[in-house]
Amino acid sequence: MTQTDVILQAMKKNAVDNGYFLCPDTQLLQDLIKGLAVNTQRYGYGSCPCRIASGVKTYDADIICPCEYRDADVDEFGMCYCGLFVRKEVHADSSKMRPIPERRPQEVQDAALAVAEGRQGTSDKHTGTSTPAVREEKKVKVWRCTVCGYLCARETPPPVCPICKAKAERFKHFLLEK
């Protein structure tokens, strides 16, 4: 079984488990799965193929597929940002697929882009891939879901908790002890 087959099966299971369907456009679905496979090989995790990834997992945690924004996008627009996960009515009529606005906060996108542009091409001896060089460590806030305890490191809390689906207002800034 190829890596793309493994990813496709995992995404199918995730869609079923969450009451979604996968993209009805066969070519787009294949492209998205291939993009996830490329990003998995490149970074060691499957960041969304439709967004700029930094190559640093802590900066990209919110866009590892399925991303933190998926549920809110599907609820509001019938599909996620890249179109991998869709509601039943979009799956039945692919003409309902359309571009949707980006929910990822601009400051998070800018930070990821800055890190991605700071690459110096150091090679990872285990994977043969290049890894980003971070010149200056930026302190990122840690947020804790008050419902389930999920922790995430990012500038703002996620719009929806990926574990318990609590809304952003249920997150509190979490202070780390030194």
CATH topology of the largest domain: Ferredoxin Thioredoxin Reductase
Strand percent estimate: 5-15%
Oligomer: single chain
- Provide the number of structural domains: 2
Distance between the termini: 45 Å
Which residues form runs of ≥5 with pLDDT under 50?
Answer: 120-137
Shape: globular
What is the count of β-strands? Answer: 7
Secondary structure blueprint with pairings:
Layout: H1 3-17, E1 21-22, H2 26-43, H3 57-60, H4 70-77, E2 85-86, H5 88-92, H6 106-117, E3 122-123, E4 130-131, E5 142-145, E6 151-153, E7 171-174
Antiparallel strand pairs: 1-2, 3-4, 5-6, 5-7
Helix pairs in contact: 1-2
How is this structure best described in words?
The chain has two domains: about 5-135, Ferredoxin Thioredoxin Reductase (Alpha-Beta Complex), CATH 3.90.460; about 140-178, Rubrerythrin, domain 2. About 35% of the residues lie in helices and about 10% in strands. By secondary structure, the chain is an alpha+beta fold. Helix 1 packs across helix 2.
